[in-house]
Amino acid sequence: MNEYDSEIMAGLLENSGYHLTDNPAEAGVILLNTCYVREKVKHKIYSRLGELKKLKEEKPELILGLCGCLVQKEPEEVLRRAPYLDFILGTSNFYQLPEVLEDISGNHNRESQSGDKYARVVRVEEDRAIPEGMPKLRKRRFSAFVSVMRGCNNFCSYCNVPYVRGREVSRPRKDILREIEELAQK
Fold first, then answer.
1. What tens digit of pLDDT does each residue of 65-76 get?
2. Which of 56, 79, 107, 165 has its CA 20 to 30 A from that of 153?
3. Of 116, 98, 124, 115, nearest in space to 56 by CA
4. All domains of the chain in start order, with CATH
C-alpha cells in the first residue's frame, strides 16, 4: 500500500512540475511517506528526520513534509518531535499534495501567527475516499502495484493497519479493471 501511495505522490509531483532527485541537497521539497508497523520503524523515521533537520537549517527554503501511517497514528507526537516540518498529510490526504505545496510555497518566507518560521499544514482527516484516476509514477517497467482496497477489518494484536488506514474499503471493480487495462497497454 505504501509503495502504491508513493507512486501516486510521485505522479502528482511530476504533474505539478517537480523533478525527482536522489540527492537531498539538490531537492526543493523532501517528502517521506511513512510506514508504522513496528516501533523500530518509528525510530528510523525520527532518525531520518533528525538528519533532514540539519539540511533544513542549512537550506531554510527547503520544504520538508511527512506523510503516511505514522502521521495518521500520532500527528501531535510527530509535530512535537519534528516542529521544523512544513507539513504532514495523513493516509487519506496525500492526494492533496500539489495544493499543499502551492499553499506553502506562497507563504514559506512568512512567519506564522505563533511566530515560528514554518508555514505548517496539517491534514489528517478520517475521510477514506481517495479520488480515482490519480497520476502514478511507476518504478517498474514490467510489474505494478494495483490497490484493490484500503484498510482492514481484522484488528490483529500485532498490527495497526485498521487504526491508521481505517476499515476495509474496496475500490469499485470497474476502476480496478480500468487501471489494469491501462497498465497492460503500456
1. 999 888 888 888
2. 79
3. 116
4. 1-186 (3.40.50.12160)
